[in-house]
Amino acid sequence: MRRTRIIDEPISRSEPGSFVDANNMRSEDIVAKTLRQTAGTVGVATRPKVVDFTKRQKERRRANLRQTVTHVAAAVGAIAVVAAIVWLLFFSPVLRLNQDKISVSGANQWVSDQQIMAIARGQAGKSLLLVSDAAVEEQLSQIPGVSSAQATKRFPNGFDVHVEAQRPAAMLRVKGTDTLTAVDNKARVLNAVDAKSAKGIPVIDVTSVDDAVSSRALRSAVVILDAFPEGWRKDVTAVSAPTQDSITTTFANGITVVWGDDTDLKLKMAIADKVMNDPKVIGDKKQINVSAPNRPIIK
Predict the structure, then answer these.
(1) Phi and psi, residue 13, nearest 5°
(2) Which of 113, 192, 214, 292 shows its CA 20 to 30 Å from the CA of 124?
(3) Partners of 236 in the β-ladder
(4) 109: phi then psi, degrees, rounded to nearest 5
(5) Architecture in CATH of 170-298
(6) CA distances to 135, 198, 216, 243, 246 from 173, in Å
(7) ATP-binding as a keyword (predicted)?
(8) Whether residue 116 has pLDDT greater than 90
(9) 215 has which bridge partners?
(10) Is the separation of the CB atoms in 119 and 139 below 8 Å?
């Protein structure tokens, strides 16, 4: 039996715009192409893969749920860690200020340990991270007689407080009585003391302690007295402060110094010291007026 031989002939190409013969165009066997695409590994046609969109959607939902659960768990874990750190640092006993580990220093008979400790103990029970050094120092500076204060945290549970306590600038004595009231250089009333403790401290006679500490004249007087060297302070026998511009002091040598107000104190004190200690200048004079330091008057 003779087989018919099919000879592929080249497809004629036509020029653009010329006639095209459909018999000469190559045809494509769609069926054969489909069989080739669906043929299995052994050359047998297989059934095309069918995608189950419902199943895929369920799988995607489960994946999204797992991802959400993972994110939520991570967020909860992070919050738990932060909460644990906050509790450890601010509320646990690890950094809590213990009352028995508070130390104070610098007190004297005018500024007591009890006054300082009362302020420091107000911070007991707090985390040291919540204790404000500046706030404690500000409270301590409000105590009459305290010129400066320093508060230092001592981790993990301690607190050290140190103050510079003044001696009184002056003692106020109500006229007609022996009652003495100590005041600092801001005219603030200090602790009550006995007369023996007031030795060497200038005394100012007043009619009323309350009225005196609120007057500008007394405030100016205590500033001047506080600036005196200790040798001068113990030799002051009288202080007069009728107004803030007419402060005078009398010393044991009988010389009275008119200070005027409390301005230019260093210059006024230098002039008064030089005059009092120079017999050729002071002579038998008993008053030095340095209220105008550029023109001192000796008489």
Answers:
(1) -100, 135
(2) 192
(3) 251
(4) -70, -15
(5) 3-Layer(aba) Sandwich (3.40)
(6) 35, 11, 18, 18, 20
(7) no
(8) yes
(9) none
(10) yes
Q: Which residue has the tokens 């601010």?
A: 90
Q: At what angle do helices 133-141 and 113-120 cross, to 10 degrees?
A: 150
The residue that leads in pLDDT, 28 or 298, is: 298
Band (6; pLDDT cuts 50, 70, 90)? very low
Phi-psi region of 189 (alpha: psi -120 to 50; beta: other; left: phi over 0): beta
The residue type found at 172 is L
What does DSSP assign to residue 123? G
Residue with tokens 């001068």: 232
DSSP for residue 89: I
Q: Residues 204, 182: contact at Cβ < 8 Å?
A: no
pLDDT at 62: 84
Instruction: Give per-residue pLDDT as tens, 124-161.
Output: 999 999 999 999 999 999 999 898 999 999 999 999 99
User: What's the pLDDT tens digit per position in 239-257?
Assistant: 999 999 999 999 999 999 9
pLDDT at position 39 = 58
Question: So what's the pLDDT on residue 89?
Answer: 85
> Which of 70, 68, 50 is CA-nearest to residue 60?
68
Question: CA 11 → CA 16, 17, 24, 29, distances in Å?
Answer: 15, 17, 6, 17
Query: What is the C-alpha to C-alpha distance for residues 268 and 263, in angstroms, rounded to an integer?
Result: 9
Distance CA(167)–CA(20), nearest Å, equals 125
- CATH of the structural domain 96-165, one choice from 3.10.410.10, 3.10.20.310, 3.40.50.1220, 3.30.70.1050: 3.10.20.310
Residue with structure tokens 């140190």?
162
Is this prediction's pTM over 0.85? Answer: no
